[in-house]
Amino acid sequence: MKRMLWIIPLLVLLLAGGFFISSSRASTETAPYTVLETDDKIEVRLYDTLHLAKVSLPASDPKAENMDGAFMKLFRFIDGGNETGEKIAMTTPVIMQRTSTESSMSFVMPKAIAEKGTPKPKGDVTLDQLPSVKVVAIRFNGRSNPEVEKQKLAALQTWALTKNLTTEGTPLVAYYDPPWTPGPFRRNEILLRLKAEPK
Question: Where do the domains of the chain lie?
Fold first, then answer.
């Protein structure tokens, strides 16, 4: 009986937390895309050009694995640490990319900011673009880590092969929630670019 008294408030807390997180996420601008195909947790999507603010580190840097410090550098940029002092709304997702030579973390610029021109950054932040691209994406919940991401990437690659889709480039890892979000409510994704079909 005592155990039940603990479980009920815990369930209420989890449900309330889930509602708060979903409402908060709904009020945050997300990089728009068109869904072309859906198969459970996997989607084929078309993204318009994404305008990014990015922090990069060479792969040899000890901080490159987790991009330690990159988030705060990007946050300072959108909080007014740019040439015009303009505050820029946070969007989702935060995009991570790791290659053999460097790792990067990027914030997607809101549509209104991208259309008028993103203010010039200060410090280690640079501006970049992800040109309009078709991708295959797999969504998963929970706390992400390199092992989980490796498993999801393998599942995504296998699915693409069964559909005769050719992927290219390095994977993009997309995170939609702040670090304090409970694991079950986190939205994470692995994205692979699809090779353009010959015209």
Answer: 1-29, 49-130
Contacts of residue 121, Cβ cutoff 8 Å, sequence gap at least 6: 53, 77, 81, 82, 83, 127
b/e burial code for range 137-165 (CB count within 10 A of at least 16 → b): bbebeeebeeeebeebbeebbebbeeeeb
Instruction: Please answer whether residues 170 and 102 qualify as being in contact, where contact means their C-beta atoms are separated by less than 8 angstroms.
Output: no
Sequence-ordered list of residues with C-beta below 8 angstroms from that of 190, at least 6 positions apart, any chain: 137, 138, 140, 149, 152, 153, 156, 171, 172, 173, 174
Cα-trace Rg, the chain: 19
CATH architecture under which domain 49-130 falls:
Alpha-Beta Barrel (3.20)
When pLDDT is averaged across residues 91-106 and rounded to a whole number, the result is: 94
Distances (CA, A) of 135 to 52, 96, 128, 148, 150: 17, 15, 18, 20, 18
E strands within the chain? Answer: 33-39, 42-47, 50-58, 94-98, 102-108, 126-130, 133-140, 167-175, 188-194
Distance (Å, rounded) from C-alpha 162 to C-alpha 154? 13
The sign one gets for the Cα dihedral 150, 154, 159, 163 is positive
* pLDDT tens-digit map of 33-59: 999 999 999 999 999 999 999 999 998
Residue 115 is which amino acid?
A: E
**DSSP state at residue 146:** H
Number of Cβ atoms within 10 Å of the Cβ of 123: 11
